[in-house]
Every structure is written in C-alpha cells, then in structure tokens.
What we know:
Shape: globular
CATH class of the largest domain: Alpha Beta
CATH topology of the largest domain: FAD/NAD(P)-binding domain
Structural class: alpha+beta
Amino acid sequence: MTETNINSIVIAGGGAAGATVAAALAVSLQGSATKIKLIQPPVDGGNAPCEAVRGGAQSFHQMLGVAEQELLAATRGGYGLGTRFQGFHADHEEIFLPLGSHGMTLRLIDFHHYAAKLRNAGASEEYNEYSLSAAAAGTGRFSPPGDSDNPASKTLAYDIYVDAGHYAMFWQNCAEDLGVEVLTAKMEAAVIGADRFIESVSLEDGNGVDGDFFIDCSSDRVLAGCLDEADAFDDWSRWLPCDQFVSALTKKSRQPLLFMDIEANDYGWVQNTTLSNLAVHNLACSSQHIDAGSAQRLLQEKLGDVTVFDIQTKTQCAGNYHNHWVNNCVAIGPAALSIEPMEISSLQLVHSAVLRLLGMLPDEKFSPALAQEYNRVTNEECASARDYIILHYMLAGRRSSPFWAQFNNVTLPDSLQARVELFKTHGRITNRDYEFVSGARWASCFLNFGAWPSSYDPIADMIDEKRMQSDVSKFHENVQQIAESF
Length: 486
C-alpha cells in the first residue's frame, strides 16, 4: 500500500467495532511505518450480545485472511438464512424474508417482474418458493455449498451469527498479532489543538496517547464528541421510535434456528437468535409507551421459566451524526450512528465504513475533499439502511396498540417515498450507489409483506409464455433439490 505519511493512528474503543477497524488497518498497512494503537475501555456498552455479520462479510473476512470456520469456532457462531416476522401483519401469521435473491434473470429483467406476471395469471406459488435460502431454512439443515454452475446455487446468501464479545476478542487478538498496540484504559476526552485537530487522547490515569489520525468507535463518542463540527445529529426517532433495548441471554433450548425470529408485541418487538450454545433475546421498544422496568419484566415474562444468565438495558435514539469525518477524526460504528437492528447489523455498517476509509486514507495534509466525499457516501449509505428498516414498519399491518398506530401518521423520508411509489406503480427497484441492501432484498420485503405492484416491466410480456413457464418450473425444481441436499 502507498505510504500514508501518517506516523500513528489511534482507535478509540468500541468493542467489536474498534477491534475490527484495528485489524483491517493492520492488514492493509503491513510493511508501512505507521503505528496503530487501540484503546479499549475496561467495559464498553457499544455491543449487543449477538450480532449478525452481514453484507459481504465473507469477502471482508477473506480480505483479512481469516477462514470462516476458524471465525465460527472462535465466536460460538452459527449460520442464518433470513428473518422470520411474527405478528407484524394481520393477513399473515408469519412472514419470512430470505437472504439472497429469488428466481433467475430473463432478458436482463429481474425475476420479481415475472413473479408479478405469473401472479396476475393466477399462479398459486408463493414468492419464496423461488428462493434457495428460504427452502434451505425450511429444512433446518445448512452448510455453505461449494462452487456450482447451477443458477439456483448462485442465488444463495447467508449471515453469520456471532457472540459480539468473542468477535471483538478474535479481531483484537488478530490486530495484536499484526503489531497493533492495545491499551486497556478509560478515556476522558480528546485534546484539541488551536487548528481544531485532535492532538491526543487523555486517559483517566492522567496519561495521554498522541496520534496523527484518530478513529472514534466508542459508544459515548469520547473523541468525536469533543469536536463541535461533529455534533450535527439527524434525529430519526419520528420514523424509528424504539429507544429502549433489553437484552437477555439464556441457555439454548432447541436446535439453532437458521434464521432470526422477530415477534411483534404491543410495545415493539423481540428478536430471538440462537448461537451454538446460547439463545439471545433482544426487546426493542419505545420509552414513550413503556418504562424501562416494565420493559425488562415484559421480556422476562416472555421467556417464562428459562434461566436467564444476563439481562441488560440500554437506551439510544435512532439517528446519524452526519459529519462522520471532521479534520483528523473519523467516527465509525456506535460513535457514528444509532439504528434499530431490524435486518441491519451494526457490524455490517462497520465493515462498509472501514473498507471505505481504507480507500480514502489521508496523507499528512488531511485534504477536506476526502472528508467531504467520505461523509457524502457514508450518509447516503446510512439513509438507505434507515429507509429499509422504516419500510418494514410501513408494510406491517399491525396497528393494535399506540406504538403501532403511530405509523398511520408518519410522513416517509423523501428518499423512501420515491422508492415506494416507483415500486407500487411499476415494480421498479432503482439500485442506488453506496447501499448494501440489494434490489433483490428490497423486492423481497415488498412482496413478502404483500405489497405487489400494479404493473410490471413490459418486457416480461415479450418472452414466450411456454419458455418462461418451463424455465421457472425448472428453477423451482432445482431449488428444492439443492435444499434437500444440505
């Protein structure tokens, strides 16, 4: 890699976020003279007990030279093929949103247009019958397949569920092996120079850590919070009202599910995930409708007589600090934004941010143009992730309590409103730059929640009817055969 002319990089906290960033930088800067220091607080509240590692995680881990099986063993991890929603819609007892894509592309037209055409013609097949991820999740068996020329195999995608604490320690150990200096210390604040650049991090013990470039991954924004320019906050709570999160760990009581399970209740929803030896339960709710003590009791009542190893409550308002990079400080992970963990993982955003940063590492001049471009791209990505989560609330038919009824009066962000109108009228998904939610996942969310478009791509009518029926039927058979082979 080209020499950055930066002598030292200091990463502040953040548990899994900070450790991942440290490891990625260490791999990319091998052979350079740049020193990397990671300051981890004795206790960090930035991690959920369980995280879904999504959005190109396989290629991210491969880039860092880590085998997937090694990572799974170290993090008590497991596989996931999608998310099951229960109680979200009056017309459907449950809705399953699989990962990957559905069907195949014909004449460069996405499959959901053909699914809409078949549905208009009276086809009875559910959209998920053309998803390999959905079929595999239904069997309860899965292992990542090898390379295959079968078109159905290429539509498969999967998550990795990890214990966030073990994931953080795994990457911290990797970073140390690559020469990163790790300090365990409570950070007090950033020391700011007359030019508004950070000079060092002051620690509780009176010492300081100097650096040229600083990356804030801390849950309390210990560095970015010292820069007035970094305090501009976009409050998303009018769209994403959950600001209380109660997490409980219990003993695994069944075979691990190959998907996340999200159950709606009158105050929000509970997300259930199984690891190799634990079950993790996360209640997301709004303090406007239930207090912290009642929320904790609600989760405990749902769990029944199961032994709870640990239960924690944290509060956070959904939103984005849109000046992620200011002068010589970049905020990543919990220091950059807060978002509800509904089909979007905070680690997914961390992976994307650090890869973006590696492509824009500054030299000693710290050109403002780099920061401006980084902020522009990152804000577009964050807004897309926000919109995808909001879509679930908008499509959910549940309106049985004040929490859910509030969505009747929500004005959507312009970016989401435009996307909804385009799909509703024409079935079109515009693939925007810098978003990791694929067009296939947007279409899956619309269709599986029952929001079918009023029309579809006219090219779908130009394909020979018999040929289309034959291709679709053959694809469906392949999906079932591959799923049964896992």
